[in-house]
Write the structure tokens for this entry.
Amino acid sequence: MKEGAVTLGLSRQDFIGMNMVIHFCLLSTIDSFASMGIMQTQRAQQDGNASGKIKSGMKQP
């Protein structure tokens, strides 16, 4: 039981570290793409998809 807890703790720390690395990479890529205006088009597409999902959901009884 103790060994399992130790491995779980290590895996959690590794998972948190990976999340921080992924977030850092995402932020750096977003900053580089934002200057080209790509983020604006992606936001517009996401808004359109969200409204479409809400409308289709309301149609269903």
User: Anything to note?
Assistant: The mean pLDDT is 66. The chain has two helices and no strands.
